[in-house]
Amino acid sequence: MSAFFISRPIFATVLAIVIVVLGAVSMPFLPIGQYPPIAPPTVVVSATFTGANARAVEDSVTTPLEEQINGVEGMVYMSSVSSDDGTSTITVTFETGYDLDIAAVDVQNNVEIASSQLPDEVVQAGVTVTKQSSDITLAPNLYSPDGRYDTLFISNYITIHILDVMKRIPGVGEVQMFGERTFAMRIWLDPQKMASLGVTAEDVTKAVSDQNQVVAAGALGQQPAPEGQVFQFTLSTLGRLQTAEEFGDIIVRAESDGRIVRISDIGRVELGAELYDETANVDGQPALPFGIFQLPDANAIDLADEVEAKMAQLSERFPEGLEYEIIYDTTRFIRASIKEVLTTLGFAIALVVFVIFMFLHGLRTTLIPVVTIPVCLIGTLAALLAVGFSINTLTLFGMVLAVGLVVDDAIVVVENVARNLESKAIEVHEAANEAMKQVTGPIIATSLVLMAVFVPVAFTPGITGGLYKQFALTIAFAVAISALNSLTLSPALCAVLLKNEGTKKHPLFAWFDNGFARLNRGYERIVGFLIKSWVLVVGLFLVALLATGYLFKTVPTGFVPPEDQGYFIVLLQTPEGTSLQRTQKVMEKIEKTLMETPGVGHVIAFGGFSLLNSNSAPNTASLFAILKPWDERKAADEQLLTHILPTLNAKFASFAEAEVDAVNPPSIPGLSATGGFQFELQDYAGGTLTELESVTQAFIAEASKRPELQGLFTTFSARTPGYRIDVDRNKVLSQGVSLNEVFTALQVYLGGYYVNDFNKFGRVYRVYLQAEKDARALTTDISKIYVRNVKGDMIPLSGLVTLNAEVSARNISHYNLFRSAPINGSQAPGYSSNQAIQAMEAVAADVLPKTMGYEWTGNAYQEIKAGNVLPYIFVLALLMVFLCLAAQYESWSTPFVVILAVPLAMLGALGAQALRGLSNDIYCQIGLIMLIGLASKNAILIVEFARRRRAEGLSIEEAAIEAARIRLRPILMTAFAFILGVTPLVFSSGAGSSARHSLGTAVFGGMFAATILSLFVVPVFYVLVERLRSRPARPSQPSAA
């Protein structure tokens, strides 16, 4: 094949141009993001039982729904939270890659089946099933600088004028407002006025229901009509009310003497908010942020640009005194990270070109392998688009590492052609053809081996497979194009550009070549000595094997290293029973502390909202501290996240009024709410909430003693103070009062009661009944509530019920149907996430009773799952390499020589990780898999050439020494091109540097060790294996006569 392209260089050039054009055309269509869409699909089921406490929600709403949803196809795990605000939230997590639309439909069908078991009010309010997008991409926020607009106005301005526009932007999956104040018609009742007028809560409920409804009044003259009907008129009447005044005029009771009791006589009506249980601040001032969630295949950067452009357009219509800004924007990290990777790519290309130039001595010879770089990298983009990949951290890493790989084959071709020109007095076309006969086999073999390594990776399921696949296939595509290039364009360019320039060289190159010649002669002598002293080599190799095994056991494992993503999260929890107002004061204190912290630019705070379970609670708050750009923080260590978090946590430890923790965001968006791990402590026996809390606190106390763990806390508490209302049913019935009247009174006055809807601003809003705030502030206010008996007498509720103080749980969590206590934490400095997981499991084995157990979720679940898959990937990768080589060499023994170079690469990679204090995480593991192919590649160059020399009649020892001597230059050239190509990864800084350090260090150390050590080990093992193969079979002994 190469001979054809050598004779037709324009054809070869056209083929390369076509590859480049296809890649360039594909580039604009590739999505851009931090990671590929690997977060598990989730479906969220939400329901509201207004006025119910957490236990009532758990029993009547959450449990029936969970029992029906459990086991839906594709489900991995299910968690839920039942809250004192009457909400039930069930999150169903599916396998990575499962169709989210199908998942949502399946869950919806099961919810419909369970609806007959739910309270009528829950069914009336509606049970929603939503597809949860992975994570917030960016969050614009609106505010009023001069304070002329309150949060009620701003919230509904966003709902009416902005949210629908945002949802129509391509790539937007969901839009969620924080601190939302949706309009509602609030009817605030005065229980004492109602009692004096003989009006009950049921009376008001019925009046609003009857007098605020949609009325279809019909028409006059509508067909069928009398003969000769001339006109037809549509009729209308006042149905649904719209204003507070109209609701105030609703007649509750009309007496026979003409007296009328209206709602305005017994209460107050206002256009208020549906909920008042959350607040939002930006930099200490009231504001309303709304999060933009992107669809899985959307381009994050294009989405952010489109949102910014649309917000700028919409802001032109804002009323005076209303402004917006975008503070939280995850694409800033993506942009900065991609910029750093591209910078690294540029340095890698420059270093690779330098190495090639030093070894090949000329611009012409350097140009040939350098041309390969853009052809392969740009061409790979077309392959990425074809398989549905995106431009992300993994694919960009693949391209950075591919820089040192794609030139390898071209270097082998150029070096061999140049050597033929120097050593033989032949014409350049003949030299190119001769060279290709020698190197075509090794090029195909090494390329197949490199691609074969990644075959098992392509079929790995789950998040781990998604991460491996993006990187591995990017490398495989680049290597495939490189192999094609080296068999077509490279020999053609050699025939066109190279010429025999004789022995005349630049003094620098002459000095370099003389030094290399001395190195080569010394190397040849050492190889000869080692072949004779093969026992020493085998012994040292066994030591290296033991050292590799030791490092595999001792280098801590992990999932994804924590990154400085440009922001961090602060979680606040005040003592149980604390009001939202009190929590807000503590939150404001934390806001001030954060704003005074060097490196922090902005602070977004949500009062009454827990990020960990996405539920409202008056004693919780969540804050996002947005850091200044990375370039502004590089110069000062105190402004780096690794310094900010421990410094702040030390300050927060002295806050007596609350428990405060500053934590990293999740390393992979969508896996969990924060970084670190989440451990679900489960109660299998159905014990009391108090027992679950007691075991949880004992567990945390014991786990906190472990040096591997830090920041352990739980959002679960069974000590929330409250009161239990005991209804004396005998007394209720004996006094002629309906039990339903008692329960309705409690729910209307104290819990808030959703009656029906009204229309305003082209939207549908809800109507709520509730007692005035002064009438539901103290336990003694119960005495102000009255109910009516069958005789029409007003009976005080305090005579029918008693209040008993109790403690209970504000939020009750389930995990896979069992009650659970979620425990969050992270690894301590100097320890890996896997060590933290093992420490938690060790404590669980010692502390937990038999009636309780645990499960992992989020990051930890995926890490454990990844760890279980990794050994199989390694074994399969080695097997694929072995099978490819066996097929190539038509031998079962020769491939062992190549495979034996792999442990040396593992030794270097893990040793480098250990020296830098890095863990064996996903990125390191990707590097290890890649090193299987890279280590084999160097060995193949020696083995292939030795086999050729052996076929030419040399002895085994002579063939091995000759192959080692001749292949030393291309091996060192390709190895140093790769090693220097990844060096920028090792020493990079800025956004995303943790991942670059882990991957770069592993492949740098592994390739360095594999190159240096395999140069001496491979020739020795080749000789040993060939001696075994060549040993004549022992003749069979004749049997005794």
From TrEMBL:
GO terms for molecular function: efflux transmembrane transporter activity; xenobiotic transmembrane transporter activity. InterPro entries: AcrB_DN_DC_subdom (IPR027463), Acrflvin-R (IPR001036), MdtF-like (IPR004764), SSD (IPR000731). Pfam families: ACR_tran (PF00873). Its main location: membrane. GO terms for cellular component: plasma membrane. One of its GO terms (biological process) is response to toxic substance. It is found in: Cell inner membrane. This is Efflux pump membrane transporter. The keyword Cell inner membrane applies. SUPFAM superfamilies: Multidrug efflux transporter AcrB pore domain, PN1, PN2, PC1 and PC2 subdomains, Multidrug efflux transporter AcrB TolC docking domain, DN and DC subdomains, Multidrug efflux transporter AcrB transmembrane domain. It comes from the Bacteria. It comes from Methyloceanibacter caenitepidi. Belongs to the resistance-nodulation-cell division (RND) (TC 2.A.6) family. Residues 381-496 form the SSD domain. Keywords: Cell inner membrane, Cell membrane, Membrane, Transmembrane, Transmembrane helix, Transport. The keyword Transmembrane applies. It is a multi-pass membrane protein. The chain crosses the membrane at residues 341-360, 367-391, 439-459, 471-498, 526-552, 869-889, 896-914, 926-946, 966-987, 999-1025.
